């Protein structure tokens, strides 16, 4: 939920923030402690292996998917959180959250996960800040109908002081390029050398669009307590809703930076 920190800073005038939940893992299913007798499924970015490991047997630097069993009836339930082991406290691993499993954008050989997409969004903050503007919500999809295919990012913006803001088409084009410069080297190689990915596109939607998206999801049975804005979409009715609220469209005006790696 780190993407909401700038919004919290805005409404709280940058007051210090601290989470009250330090000793528990927090998920939609509730609060739970993870003891060393629990299991974690070993995983990679693309595929989760079938083997499981005790927490004490995990390796620092490796990535794992959490699996839990509860008294409420969940048996070896795959939470869907990908964690990385950063160290140990006695025999208990210390972990950090990396991303949700299988939230990816891909056109060719590129693979962009939620954490990398969030980083790219964050790196556009400086460009928007001088115009008293920030990204309130966003989602994305990989457009493969065009050739070459390209990433499409939907932005809902918060203009903090419209009287002082003069956010131009050129600035938003530069935001597209800033996002591309933040992508991994495989993405940038596909853009620069292989020409297999087209310029990144940002579609700015009207204020309140993501609230409408939430209302639509709830009308289809989603829980209001567990709803989160999707970071990647491919469901036609949702995309039609987003496209019907688009105010402006922007493309990366140049190629991102990329340098071929020298072979030894």
Automatic annotation (TrEMBL):
The keyword Amino-acid biosynthesis does not apply. One of its GO terms (cellular component) is cytoplasm. GO terms for molecular function: acid-amino acid ligase activity. Keywords: Ligase. It comes from the Eukaryota. It holds the Pfam family GH3_M. InterPro entries: GH3, GH3_C, GH3_M. Residues 116-235 form the GH3 C-terminal domain. Residues 52-100 form the GH3 middle domain. Belongs to the IAA-amido conjugating enzyme family. This is Uncharacterized protein.
């Amino acid at each position: 939920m780190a993407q909401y920190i700038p919004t919290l800073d805005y409404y709280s005038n940058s007051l210090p923030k601290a989470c009250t939940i330090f000793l528990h893992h927090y998920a939609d299913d509730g609060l739970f402690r993870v003891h060393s007798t629990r299991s974690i499924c070993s995983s990679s970015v693309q595929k989760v292996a079938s083997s499981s490991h005790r927490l004490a047997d995990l390796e620092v630097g490796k990535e794992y998917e959490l699996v839990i069993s509860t008294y409420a009836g969940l048996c070896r339930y795959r939470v869907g959180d990908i964690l990385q082991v950063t160290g140990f406290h006695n025999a208990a691993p210390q972990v950090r959250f990396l991303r949700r499993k299988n939230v990816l954008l891909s056109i060719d050989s590129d693979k962009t996960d939620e954490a990398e997409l969030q980083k790219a969004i964050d790196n556009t903050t400086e460009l928007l800040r001088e115009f008293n503007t920030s990204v309130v919500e966003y989602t994305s999809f990989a457009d493969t109908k065009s050739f070459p295919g390209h990433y499409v990012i939907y932005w809902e913006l918060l203009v903090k002081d419209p009287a002082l803001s003069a956010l131009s088409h050129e600035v938003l084009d530069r935001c597209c390029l800033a996002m591309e410069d933040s992508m991994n080297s495989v993405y940038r190689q596909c853009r620069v050398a292989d020409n297999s990915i087209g310029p990144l596109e940002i579609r700015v939607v009207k204020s309140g669009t993501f609230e409408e998206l939430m209302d639509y999801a709830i009308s289809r049975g989603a829980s209001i307590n567990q709803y989160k804005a999707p970071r990647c979409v491919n469901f036609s009715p949702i995309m039609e809703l987003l496209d019907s609220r688009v105010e402006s469209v922007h493309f990366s005006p140049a190629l991102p930076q990329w340098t071929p790696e020298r072979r030894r």
